[in-house]
Design brief:
This protein has 343 residues and is mainly α. The chain is 59% helix and 4% strand. The protein has twelve helices and five strands. It has helices at 3-18, 44-61, 64-80, 90-107, 110-124, 151-164, 167-184, 211-228, 231-248, 267-281, 287-302, 324-341; strands spanning 19-20, 25-26, 136-138, 141-146, 195-196. The strands form two sheets. The protein has a three-stranded antiparallel β-sheet with strand order 3-4-5, with helices on one face. A two-stranded antiparallel ribbon has the order 1-2. The longest helix is centred in the N-terminal third of the chain and has 18 residues, at 44-61. The protein is globular and about 50 Å long.
Length: 343
């Protein structure tokens, strides 16, 4: 089965069903059932992942249509967010910065680099000594720290150091990673918990076990390993990947869990992105590639409806209206599998 052709089909479905030419951002629900919910919360960070998915298509095809879509989305998000990319949530800003840094790498457009620099300045301001350090989740709750607001910051800081050479960025990455590993990683198997002190009780949310947290911690370890050559970071990433299979997957089929809609609809796609990165730097470790392949084949054979939409459970076709977050995860999976097939 040609994953590249299938990925292109899903990209087309994504654009046809979610792109809003008036707002120049993605609608949060598909329009195949005429579902529009203008009173719903604006999920800024979904748009960052929409940008990353457009970049996936651009990398795979080199087609200028993708870079044009990206340019339109950049300006659309800027308008929809009040003329700035700064936001109340530190994790959301990190995703936006990662998307625009990748856009800068691929296009060289200065507007992307300038936006990343502005976001990174604001993100660093989220670090404080509540709970022993770490970047806060949001600006009005500075004592709640979680993996989603720290591991992506590591990825961003290392990539900034690699591109522009500021040693302070590498120091930031190592400091944030050390806090995340020390505070929210299970020392037994490397499984990564979501956060600490959410309810003001200094407790870790050990019952919040998400694919998202594993993915971003794997990504953080990969980036630090690439940058420093220290094998400890690679070992951490591999341990966490193994914990994904042991704790979260249907062991027999290797299928990732159905994590539902809204923000959690994006979680599996994020994990897949960083599992792919792990296969690229350490192909001898076969687990990540197997997980991507098993989930992608299941999706292609059983998980799509007649118009190429994806649901929360990759083992069966979706029903009803589909959120953008959920659709994006499916596109990420097939883009990752297409990338694997080219190797």
């Amino acid at each position: 089965m040609n994953a590249a052709a299938m990925a292109e089909q899903l990209q087309t479905t994504l654009h046809n069903l979610y792109w809003n030419p008036d707002t120049q951002i993605m609608n949060q629900w598909d329009d195949s059932l005429s579902v529009n919910r203008p009173d719903e919360n604006y999920y800024y960070w979904w748009q960052a992942h929409a940008a990353d998915v457009i970049l996936d298509g651009y990398v795979r095809t080199g087609n200028a249509e993708y870079s044009n879509r990206l340019d339109q989305l950049f300006h659309g998000i800027l308008r929809s967010n009040g003329g700035t990319f700064r936001h109340q949530y530190y994790d959301d800003m990190q995703w936006m910065a990662l998307a625009w840094l990748r856009a800068y790498d691929l296009t060289g457009a200065q507007m992307y680099r300038e936006s990343v620099a502005d976001l990174w300045e604001d993100i660093r301001g989220g670090w404080n000594e509540h709970m022993g350090g770490g970047i806060a989740w949001r600006k009005n709750q500075l004592d709640y720290k979680n993996t989603p607001a720290n591991a992506p910051a590591v990825i961003l800081a290392v990539r900034l150091f690699q591109r522009f050479g500021d040693e302070a960025d590498l120091a930031w990455a190592q400091k944030i990673y050390d806090w995340n590993r020390r505070t929210l990683t299970d020392p037994v198997d490397g499984f990564v918990f979501d956060g600490i002190n959410r309810l003001g009780d200094e407790k870790i949310d050990k019952d919040w076990q998400f694919t998202y947290c594993q993915g971003v911690f794997i990504g953080a370890g990969i980036e630090l390993y690439i940058c420093t050559g220290d094998s400890v970071y690679l070992e951490d990433a591999c341990r966490t990947a193994a914990a994904v299979k042991n704790r979260l997957c249907d062991i027999a089929a290797g299928m990732l869990p159905d994590e539902g809609i809204d923000d959690t609809g994006l979680f599996k796609g994020i994990l897949i992105r960083y599992l792919l990165n792990l296969t690229e730097i350490y192909p001898e470790f076969e687990l990540p590639a197997k997980l991507i392949e098993q989930n992608a084949i299941m999706l292609m054979e059983n998980g799509l409806d007649g118009i190429g939409r994806v649901g929360t459970d990759w083992r069966k076709p979706p029903e009803g209206s589909i959120q953008l977050s959920v659709m994006l995860s499916g596109v990420m999976l097939l883009e990752a599998y297409a990338s694997l097939q080219t190797k």
